[in-house]
User: Fold these one by one.
Assistant:
Number 1:
Amino acid sequence: MESITRSRFELFPGVFFNHVKTDKFKSELITVNFLTALDRDTVSMNTLIPRVLLRGTVKHPTLDSISAATDELYGTVLFPLSRKLGEILSVGIGAGFVSGRLTPEGDENTAGVVDLICEVICNPLMKSGRFVPEFVNSEKEKLLDDIASKLNDKQTYAMAKAVEFMCACEHYGTDEYGTEQSAGAITRQKLSERYRTLLTSSPIEIFYCGSCETERIAEAFRDRLQNIVAINPDYDIGTDIRMDPLEDEVRYYEEEMDIAQGKFVIGYRLGDCMEEPDYEAIRVFNVLFGGGVTSKLFMNVREKLSLAYYAASGTDMLKGLIFAYSGIDGENYDKAVREIGIQLEAIRNGDFTDEELNNAIATVASGHKSVPDLPTSLENFCMRSLLMGFPDASPEEFCALAGEVTREDVIAIAKSVRPDCIFYLKPSGNLPGEEDYEEDEDE
């Protein structure tokens, strides 16, 4: 695995520059991330702002003009950012571009990308001090379409509903796009006001994954941003980690839909282990439980007992949650839920082989080794590890820590985990059967 060098320092109050130095890539990446609280009242506006910013600037007032500017920078690609990171929402602008090592201009090409990003962020095209109505209305409709489209992937929909119900009393229950109601209520005046608040009150994390000298790129950002942003940065943002389920009994929610395959999600709190989290032990536990093709859920619920089309698990360690999810025939719901509980109990009792444990560790280590393969995955790793409290850690270091996870570590995580909520997207039974299709053909 290639060694990654990370450095982080404050450009000025509230604005931090992160250099992930590597010369591995032919393409490089810059992201400018505004960190704000995940809040039902502002989430749709925060997500919409980067999309509107990319529609036009004072210097480049049209999409064609922006496109021409990116073409001059060797086909640089600008894109909006919106990420739910625990109970923090990160929004901003990203740019993928050809490494300066491969252009005649060298570092000057990268500096040109910085100039364009700052132009988009700081100098949007305005009318009467507000965003252009056409830009807002067009991007708002696209956001509404994105919200509605989440229903198309039924497992994604079931997961979103599970999070909504499980964390109804927590900010985490808010979707990163918001709701149709919150998005539909956006006006250009409200959005313009929110943009100015975001610009002047949000801590900013800038990431540069590339080979240019740190100070060259940092100075370019310092010159362009210091008089515009972070006038009064709000550092009082973070994630509230609830150790215990909301109620003693597991809460159950269901929704019927005209689908052939039922989908359910079991939400768990990681519990007391989040007091001083051993993140690698949590990762290994998750893989052993349901995070891979050698996991307990895959090998037993799906393969051995044939109770599900798939059975897996995933974590959000920033919030201290783990979810088991599955696609089933309706008649197998009770059996599948029961079997998932049995497999969790097996891990609590140490009922897993050394081979299973070693396979889980190898899977986690492999995931860390693949992080430096793409600038986007490397940047995402650095952002998440920063919020976990490891601003200088490399994938290589996490890989080494995974190799130190013991059987006792995994058992301790399993014993800490407690079920909180089940959401079941239940087949309604209204889908047409074979006889119904035959009748339609006769007609």
Number 2:
Amino acid sequence: MNYVITIARGFGSGGKDIGMRLSKELGIPCYERQLLTMASDYSGIEESIFVENDERLRGLKIANFLRRVPTTGVVEPNEKAFISDVNVFNIQAEIIRTLADTESCIIVGKCADDILRDRDNVISLYIEAPRAACVKSICERMKVNEKRAHKLIESTDKYRANYYSYYTGGKSWTNPTNYDLVLNSDRIGREQCVQLIKEFIKIRFGEDVLNKA
């Protein structure tokens, strides 16, 4: 069987890093930024539109317009709503569903846990860490000071939360009941998170599934 691991993550918690380490351990692809390129190639919409919409909404004027746009299904290229936030989201969601149907993979962000919530072959994870650990990680990775790191965490987590709430019908992005497994990457350690996830895959899908991915 093919299986999918979705990873939601607080900014600076190392969720993407854990996804990439897990990808290497399991020998399956990890999709995050690549999904934007795939959605652009699939739809013909400029990749910059997908980048601008990446886990965020584009302001009140756009949000008001979205209320008049269908929230399911991909609209035709000749329709005005073709490059709306909702249609861009639906294109990404269609690709995520196709990936879940066809291959074992890891998907970081993009509301993938909710898009695939009814599927038996999916494990959904939420990775978080205390603010101090996230600040330290961002300072080291992005070469910024602590003040800037705090601002980046606040703004990024806010727009991710708003995006998640909008496209999941009001769900809270940080609610642990949305996920199968919630991990504190600082307390456990990123490499140990990878090993715990591997063990959870075995528990959920059986011992042999990792050899068949």
